[in-house]
Amino acid sequence: MANGKIGVLVMSYGTPESMDGIEEYYTHIRRGHAPTPEQLAGLTERYEAIVGGVFPLRENTNRQVAGLQAALDAAAPGQFGCYQGLKHARPYIEDGVAAMAADGIKQAVAIVLAPHYSTMSVGSYMKRAKEKAEELGIAVAEVESYHAHPKLIEALATRVKTAYAALEAAGAQPIKTLFSAHSLPVKIREMNDPYEQQLLESSALVAEGAGVTDWAFTWQSAGRTREPWLGPDILETMKETAEAGYKGVLAAPIGFVSEHLEVLYDLDIEAQAEAGKLGIKLKRMDMLGTDPLYMETLADSVRDAARAAFI
């Protein structure tokens, strides 16, 4: 091990560094195919709506990586070194692995800033990381998921309770809590993919921790492709909720750990506008960001994986 350290490859989806990088980012998502002018305009409009010319989204991930490093240093001083690898933006996953190799790292733990495992999401990150690591002679242990970690559940439950109390104070009762995550193609069900079951398990644990009994799980941010995606979408669920007589909806996007486009636009702008049309109040829980309990969840998961594989 270089300087006695185990590398930690911290992976996430990625976001452009500025408005100027949107086309390159979108082209990478489309596997090298440039977006049409209409597609590019649509995505650019979404970013303009949420960032207003200032682009802080990349900093959220940078802070989380730094927060994980601090949590690891507190628990195991000098034992781990964190490296960032993004799926669709620089530094790419392969860049993060190459940086570890350049530092002489021979053993590493790979973890994704997403609590729930799917072969189509976390699995694809791990595949790229392991392929590059094998090429460069680095042994990699994987953290597949941490969706039921007690510290994660506690952090999410606290956020749900806070948002629920705010809706109550605003007189928006009765309240329905809607847990959500990024939709994936329906075909994952044929693959016995654990994604949906893990999300339902997390939702039940968080609801129990928050003392919430009236809740449902729904999907959001489905891709615009010909194949069917998991539903119903949160906009549909909100409509049904309003029709059932609810006055308040608590949005709990537990599939996300930071203020992504899917949170800041799909929920804070699109779903909020829908709530206005439906005559109901919508309150979103705060995202995890660098919450100490989330950082400890990640650190615990990394250390467990390292112990099992290397220590």
Automatic annotation (TrEMBL):
<dbReference type="GO" id="GO:0046872">
    <property type="term" value="F:metal ion binding"/>
</dbReference>
<feature type="binding site" description="axial binding residue">
    <location>
        <position position="13"/>
    </location>
    <ligand>
        <name>Fe-coproporphyrin III</name>
    </ligand>
</feature>
<comment type="similarity">
    <text>Belongs to the ferrochelatase family.</text>
</comment>
<dbReference type="GO" id="GO:0004325">
    <property type="term" value="F:ferrochelatase activity"/>
</dbReference>
<feature type="binding site">
    <location>
        <position position="125"/>
    </location>
    <ligand>
        <name>Fe-coproporphyrin III</name>
    </ligand>
</feature>
<dbReference type="GO" id="GO:0005737">
    <property type="term" value="C:cytoplasm"/>
</dbReference>
<keyword id="KW-0350">Heme biosynthesis</keyword>
<dbReference type="InterPro" id="IPR001015">
    <property type="entry name" value="Ferrochelatase"/>
</dbReference>
<feature type="binding site">
    <location>
        <position position="262"/>
    </location>
    <ligand>
        <name>Fe(2+)</name>
    </ligand>
</feature>
<keyword id="KW-0408">Iron</keyword>
<keyword id="KW-0479">Metal-binding</keyword>
<feature type="binding site">
    <location>
        <position position="30"/>
    </location>
    <ligand>
        <name>Fe-coproporphyrin III</name>
    </ligand>
</feature>
<keyword id="KW-0456">Lyase</keyword>
<comment type="pathway">
    <text>Porphyrin-containing compound metabolism; protoheme biosynthesis.</text>
</comment>
<dbReference type="InterPro" id="IPR033644">
    <property type="entry name" value="Ferrochelatase_C"/>
</dbReference>
<keyword id="KW-0963">Cytoplasm</keyword>
<feature type="binding site">
    <location>
        <begin position="46"/>
        <end position="47"/>
    </location>
    <ligand>
        <name>Fe-coproporphyrin III</name>
    </ligand>
</feature>
<keyword id="KW-0627">Porphyrin biosynthesis</keyword>
<dbReference type="InterPro" id="IPR033659">
    <property type="entry name" value="Ferrochelatase_N"/>
</dbReference>
<feature type="binding site">
    <location>
        <position position="182"/>
    </location>
    <ligand>
        <name>Fe(2+)</name>
    </ligand>
</feature>
<dbReference type="Pfam" id="PF00762">
    <property type="entry name" value="Ferrochelatase"/>
</dbReference>
<comment type="function">
    <text>Involved in coproporphyrin-dependent heme b biosynthesis. Catalyzes the insertion of ferrous iron into coproporphyrin III to form Fe-coproporphyrin III.</text>
</comment>
<dbReference type="GO" id="GO:0006783">
    <property type="term" value="P:heme biosynthetic process"/>
</dbReference>
<protein>
    <recommendedName>
        <fullName>Coproporphyrin III ferrochelatase</fullName>
        <ecNumber>4.99.1.9</ecNumber>
    </recommendedName>
</protein>
